[in-house]
Amino acid sequence: MVNSFKSHNPLNIIILFVYGLLLKYSSFSDPSVPIAQSTDGFLYHTLLWYLKGVGANAPVIYSIIAYILVFTQAITLSNLISNQRLMTKPNYLPAMSYLLVTSFFPEWWQLSSTLIVNTLLVWVWERMSVLYNNSKAKKILFNIGIVLGVCSFFYFPSIAFVILMIFALLIMRPFNVTEWLVGLLGITTPYYFLFAYYYLSDKWDIKTFLPGISLSYPQFQQTIWAWGGLLFLIIPFLLSGYYIQNNILRMLIQVRKSWSLLLLYLLTSLMVPFINSTSTFTYWILSAVPFAAFHANTFFYPQKKLLPYVLHWAMVIFILILNYVVMHS
């Protein structure tokens, strides 16, 4: 299976689609109805309100939408990594890794505000990666800012990814005040139109779309399955650091900077759930994109096939057992 996804054969897209369905089969056989939390933005609340009628009769609609989002993100991530030549040859291992990573926790199988935000953040990271020596940096930064502003309308704490844009400017560009101001302008633009709409429609109540901000330790149910999922996140990530370090001298400067930015993406995504935290593991899915990108290296670089083979099938078996446990819990 791993060897199959090492090629960039378009047939792999069909295989990946079926592969992902098998990994998340219990989300379709026993679908759950998502419940918006206080940290979720008004666009997510609105989406659930529109889906409420269909979802009441066919809750599987939530699972279908969630899987379409996950699969689209997986293919997009894989294509972006190939286009930027972050690995020595194009392949679908990042897509395979993303489908695996998003299957480690039952909360990540469900439709959530952060799952929607991931779709936008994959594009944001790719745009940040091409800032290096780009003559159209101001345009790119403005668009990045707009998308980050829109992300906060689905999941308000995601506004913290402004930190990632600051990192991108520091890593990819020489200091330029104008570029920083353009990025800030992009972030505030969606809020300008939002405030104007609410003001002109006489619905001005800032608390309805800007919840308060607080920092606290997020809680989640610490089961053996949760710890197992965490181990499968961390071990391949640590191994990937070894393989990237071994190949870093062969990489172009832009590629090295992109991997550095991806690491900062991971650190930022692990920090965001501490803002207005809840007792669910759902919001940690923001870290799935960078984790999957790093995991792909662990499957790609080893010369001996045993490690990727054992690691892959250990993950698959863990996920399939987890599906069975969830169905019978």
Task: Characterise the protein shown here.
The protein is mainly alpha-helical and 329 residues long. The chain has helices at residues 2-5, 11-23, 25-29, 42-57, 60-83, 93-101, 113-129, 137-154, 162-172, 177-200, 224-247, 253-271, 288-300, 306-327. The chain is globular. The model has no long low-confidence stretch (mean pLDDT 87).
Write the layout of secondary structure elements.
Elements: H1 2-5, H2 11-23, H3 25-29, H4 42-57, H5 60-83, H6 93-101, H7 113-129, H8 137-154, H9 162-172, H10 177-200, H11 224-247, H12 253-271, H13 288-300, H14 306-327
Helix pairs in contact: 2-6, 5-6, 5-7, 6-13, 7-8, 8-10, 9-10, 9-12, 11-13, 11-14, 12-13
Provide a quick synopsis of the model.
The chain is mainly α and 329 residues long.
Number of helices: 14
Name the average pLDDT: 87
Question: Which structural class do you get from the secondary structure elements?
Answer: mainly alpha
Range of strand content:
under 5%
The stretches of 5 or more residues where confidence is low (pLDDT under 50) are none
Major sheet description: none
Helix percentage: 55-70%
Instruction: Give the overall shape, derived from the CA principal axes.
Output: globular
Quaternary structure:
single chain
Distance between the termini: 30 Å
* Computed Rg: 20 Å
Number of strands: 0
H/E element sequence = HHHHHHHHHHHHHH
Record keyword descriptors for this entry.
329 residues; mainly alpha
